[in-house]
Amino acid sequence: MRKTRDYDAELRALSDKAKSIKAKKIEQLGLLVTATGADALDLDTLAGALLAAVESADAGEKEALRSRGAAFFQGRGRKAGRRSGGNGESGNQTGAGEAQG
Residue ranges of region Disordered (predicted)? Predict the structure, then answer.
């Protein structure tokens, strides 16, 4: 005889996992803001800068922003001198792409 599935329990588990992933993403975004020094900006300025980046239709501008961000994570960014280690690629600085998955 087959065991019956508890769909409610499965849905609760999926919901809990989704909440956990969302909380982790928010935490990573906060760490990113702090790591880049953007926490020194007032909220209106930071929101305006992010909105300008999102609304930009210019592919060249987006590529320039992307390469600047990649350089930051490779250790050539603003706080590269504070890191201990050779290339600045630590396990907890993965990049924004993984946070959205």
Answer: 70-101
- Domain positions in the chain are 8-55
Helix, strand, coil tally for the chain in percent (to 5): 70, 0, 30
- The whole-model pTM stands at 0.59
Quote the tokens at residue 101: 């998955």
Using CA atoms in the order 56, 61, 33, 17, what is the torsion angle rounded to 10 degrees?
60
Distance CA 78, CA 65 (A): 14
- Candidates 77, 78, 73, 76; CA nearest to 98 is 73
Q: What is the pLDDT of residues 21-56, one digit of tens each?
A: 999 999 999 999 999 999 999 999 999 999 999 998
